[in-house]
Amino acid sequence: MARFLSRLVTEKECLENCKDKASIRRHKLVEPFIYQSDLLPIPLYIHRGFSTDFASYFGREGTAGSVVHDFLYHNHILYKLQIGDLIVLASSDYIINRDLIKEKIKVGKLKADAIFKEAMIISNDPPSTFRRFLIWQAVVWGGWLAYWQGGKKSTKN
What we know:
It contains four helices and nine strands, in the order E-E-E-E-E-E-H-E-E-E-H-H-H. The protein has helices at residues 64-74, 109-123, 129-142, 144-150; strands at 3-4, 10-12, 27-29, 33-36, 44-46, 51-52, 77-83, 86-90, 103-106. The longest helix is centred in the last third of the chain and has 15 residues, at 109-123. The strands form three sheets. It has a three-stranded antiparallel β-sheet, with helices on one face.
């Protein structure tokens, strides 16, 4: 069953020459964020320090599904590894010891978009089914450039 296994905790992130924190559109995770999708074999581990703009095109902040989607758009290749008692999929940004990697898994754009839709549904965010559908369609049809730009680093690992 799809579910969030941890709570989302972020703080505003100042990237370059920011004077007014109210105008900052990026946030970073203060704690790891874990999501179990029905579309992935094991939970997704989003590391502390990951930077997100949430749902930047829709004027929304703090949506857990948007963080999952941003993470998948920036990390097309995930690595199966064990963190404590939990076996998860993590990005290369988190891995310190490559000997711990059990296997690599590629997550394509269509699967990333489907996981985003799933996360919006289970979190009921936004609460309107029609609005969720519109947001999902927007990323399905308009997210190709963001997906390919975001994954440039992950395809080199």
